[in-house]
């Protein structure tokens, strides 16, 4: 455990406070925005997943899936206990949801994100109750997710509005994806690269 006070983070590394959240019932359902749908994806190629993951998470420094090679990534996203959903319209993808049922009695929303063009259109307020319902309909007693201090400042209030409560925090120190070429140097301009 880190003690009180300031702690140096090595050059080329980032530190994020991760907040783990839990909910015990789905939020009230909302109507889907016109022309928006949620579709289960069972055979997404690694490159397609990475492109959408990067588009959604670039400015929040999402990196975990980008760091995996094709085989390791496909092992995760094609696992029968992992469900991928595309949020889409006739104009293409608007978001991605990854549900993880690999841990018995501990389902998680591993990733929940919208493309920059989809943010602010009410899609998330429809999507979260829909995702929660799909998990609780399988008999789950709780749903977990986590977010970090590098995410949008609207993330935690959004999750709490949809019934999530914070249950614990941890510090994650990891390589800056811009320093190692995983993301471009212009990503996340609000987080200075060192």
From TrEMBL:
Q: Any idea which UniProt keywords this protein has?
A: Transferase
CDD domains in alphabetical order: NAT_SF
Among InterPro entries, the record links this protein to:
Acyl_CoA_acyltransferase (IPR016181), GNAT_dom (IPR000182)
KW Repeat (keyword) present: no
One of the record's GO molecular function terms: acyltransferase activity, transferring groups other than amino-acyl groups
- UniProt domain N-acetyltransferase: residue ranges: 36-194
Q: What is this protein called?
A: Acetyltransferase (GNAT) domain-containing protein
